[in-house]
């Protein structure tokens, strides 16, 4: 039979012997004798037979002592043990929590019970996770299939294009956005204990906008239409060409939406000064106009209620009027910089049960 003899230090043996003499509870005194018996060379099966306990119970006591120490071994597990795990056990817990999406601490409590045979209370686990540098925060959505190498190559291509193009050649980024007639709830400062409510609309009306942004001058075009399709895209192209009448070539970059690749658009581009190219798939992080849309939402829709749809549409039109007038020039100077975060593949993690 396999044994695990001589795992205790001299000091640990002396401490266990001393605590055994002082321990009033036979139940906990037996736990100490179990550790000493295993240290002397008894197998788990032999010790289980000697102490009239199951093999699993002995292994649980051994794991608790090794991972958490004597105080955890002698803790009343019914009430929970909120003491410290060993450094190695804490490291294992930290890695496990970091690899799972926990919406509550209960999965971590369950994991520690199964892994280390230690029962934490909810408050004890929260304190431990805080001590291990975890905080409770929002998740962030990123493209799941992004190709970081393709993104880096695209950034290099744009950098090279801007460095060597003719001064009168504009570089334009395209994107569509459909703001919905409803407030977008976001975090705000409020008094503790008071609920902050924003009125909402019941409808789903939206404004479809196809936009273009000059990444050097930060000038923007916004075309409102019933729907964003090949026809509205061609109309946007005409407006772009009218805005730059002397440019021999207009560099335009778009995502991989179907209307940008449609037959009608390809036929139009055959005689157009616009040279259309595309971002790598799943790369909204490379499109500066995405940042402009976020800024638009901050100015128009975040926590803002418009009772009537015409009021909502009017607020959007006012935003784009002010944008063309240069009212947001200072804000956009720091927002629309040619600095890009490359999205690396992220291991897909499934939410743990709550």
Main sheet? 5 strands, mixed
Decide which structural class fits the backbone: alpha/beta
Q: What percentage of residues falls in helices of 4 or more residues?
A: 40-55%
Question: Which spans have pLDDT < 50 for at least 5 consecutive residues?
Answer: 77-82, 350-354
Outline: elongated
Task: Record the strand order, biggest sheet.
Answer: 3-2-1-4-5
Write up this protein.
By secondary structure, the chain is of the alpha/beta class. The protein folds into two domains: 10-131, no CATH class; 148-188 and 196-230 and 245-255 and 273-335, Nucleotidyltransferase, domain 5 (2-Layer Sandwich), CATH 3.30.420. The protein is built from 14 helices and five strands. Strands 3-2-1-4-5 form a five-stranded mixed sheet, sandwiched between helices. α3 crosses α4 (55-68). The protein starts with 9 loop residues before the first helix and ends in a 19-residue tail after the last helix. The model is unreliable at 77-82 and 350-354 (pLDDT under 50).
């Amino acid at each position: 039979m396999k044994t695990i003899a001589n795992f205790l230090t001299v000091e640990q043996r002396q401490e266990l012997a001393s605590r055994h003499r002082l321990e009033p509870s036979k139940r906990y005194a037996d736990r100490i004798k179990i550790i000493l018996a295993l240290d002397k060379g008894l197998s788990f099966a032999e010790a289980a037979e000697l102490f009239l306990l199951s093999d699993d119970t002995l292994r649980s006591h051994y794991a608790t002592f090794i991972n958490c120490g004597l105080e955890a071994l002698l803790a009343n597990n019914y009430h929970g043990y909120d003491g410290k795990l060993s450094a190695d056990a804490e490291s294992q817990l930290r890695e496990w929590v970091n690899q799972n999406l926990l919406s509550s601490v209960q999965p971590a409590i369950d994991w520690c019970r199964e892994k280390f045979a230690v029962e934490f209370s909810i408050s004890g686990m929260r304190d431990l996770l805080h001590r291990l540098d975890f905080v409770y925060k929002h998740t962030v959505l990123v493209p799941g299939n992004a190709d970081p190498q393709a993104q880096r190559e695209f950034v290099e291509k744009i950098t090279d294009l801007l460095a060597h193009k003719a001064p009168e050649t504009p570089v334009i980024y395209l994107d569509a956005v459909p703001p919905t007639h409803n407030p977008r709830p976001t975090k705000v400062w409020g008094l503790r204990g008071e609920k902050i409510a924003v009125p909402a609309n019941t409808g789903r009306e939206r404004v479809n906008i196809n936009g273009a942004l000059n990444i050097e001058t930060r000038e923007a075009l916004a075309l409102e239409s019933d729907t964003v399709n090949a026809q509205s895209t061609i109309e946007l192209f005409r407006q772009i060409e009218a805005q730059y009448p002397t440019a021999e070539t207009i560099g335009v970059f778009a995502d991989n939406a179907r209307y940008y690749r449609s037959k009608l658009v390809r036929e139009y581009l055959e005689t157009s000064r616009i040279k259309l190219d595309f971002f790598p798939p799943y790369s909204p992080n490379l499109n500066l106009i995405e940042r402009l849309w976020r800024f638009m939402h901050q100015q128009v829709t975040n926590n803002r209620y418009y009772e009537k749809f015409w009021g909502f549409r009017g607020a959007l039109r006012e935003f784009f009027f002010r944008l063309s007038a240069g009212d947001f020039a200072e804000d956009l100077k720091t927002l629309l910089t040619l600095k890009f975060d490359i999205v690396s593949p992220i291991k897909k993690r499934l939410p743990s049960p709550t």
